[in-house]
Amino acid sequence: MITVELIDEDVLILEGLKGYLSTASEVLVVGEARDSYALAEQGDHGAVHVVILEVNEAGDGWTDAIRRVRAVRPDSGILVLSHFRNSDYALIAIRAGAMGMLQKNCSVSDLVNAVFKAASGIPYVDDALCELLFIHAAGANSPPSDKLSGLELAILRLLVSGRTVVQASEIVGLSVGQLRWRRTKLMQKLGARSVGDLCDYARHHHPAFLTPAA
Q1: Is 39 helix (H, G, I), strand (E, B) or coil?
Q2: pLDDT for the residue 51
Q3: Are 57 and 173 spatial neighbours (Cβ–Cβ below 8 Å)?
Q4: Which ranges carry the Response regulatory domain (predicted)?
Q5: Closest Cα partner for 89 from 139, 132, 126?
Q6: Domains in the chain and their CATH numbers?
């Protein structure tokens, strides 16, 4: 029997994941938590083969969450559930200690397949992301943003999607002054002189970032 813990702040998503996993007779959900801190407080559920961690915002916050889960469940395979489809984020998640990455809209079969692989110590990425990672690894026309940190990618995404400096600073947990300093460094790395230049850069290399802010 493969034992699984779920981490998600949304109760509806937790219930949906439990329902999907219940279709596999060899999989048993043994615990759930609202976030990585709550998981640490819960203590030991016995042997847990796989932890599924849902993340919302890109940045250092969710990579820290992966590391916290890794510290609490060092022998578990960690699967990240996210709406991000980008080789940058996948690589950052893997480097932080994740065993694989899944889209929130993945099929039940993909979810169960990922759980079986992670429980066996086999990394999981779907076919589309695998292709993106291959292109990334090949290094063909690799953009400067390949060297950005998770936080820098988050700031880029927020700024080009229409967030103000104040809004972006609140989302990533920085002061307005710190956000402006990081924006300046980000522009220097990407050879940009304005947010308009950042938008042009994103249009060519990260078009999904240009989704208008809600």
Answers
A1: helix
A2: 94
A3: no
A4: 3-119
A5: 132
A6: 2-136 (3.40.50.2300), 144-210 (1.10.10.10)
Give me the average pLDDT of each 10-residue run along the chain (214 residues): 90 88 91 83 77 73 81 89 70 80 86 91 75 55 66 87 91 91 89 87 77 58
Burial 185-210 (b: 16+ CB within 10 A, else e): ebbeebebeeeeebbebbeebbeebe
- Positive/negative CA dihedral, 108, 112, 117, 123: positive
- Among the listed residues 155, 157, 153, 138, the one whose alpha carbon sits nearest the alpha carbon of residue 88: 153
Q: Note if the pTM is more than 0.90.
A: no
Measured from the Cβ of residue 105, the count of other Cβ atoms closer than 10 Å reads 8
Contacts of 191 (CB under 8 A, 6+ apart): 144, 197
- Partnered with residue 31 across adjacent β-strands are 5
Residue indicated by tokens 């990455």: 101
Q: What are the beta bridge partners of residue 138?
A: none
State the Cα–Cα distance between residues 201 and 98, nearest whole angstrom: 29
Burial-class residue 167 by CB neighbours within 10 Å (0-12, 13-18, 19+): middle
Please give the backbone phi and psi of residue 176, each rounded to the nearest 5 degrees, phi first.
-60, -40
Which residue is it, tokens 């304005």?
Answer: 194
Are the C-beta atoms of 191 and 144 separated by less than 8 Å? yes
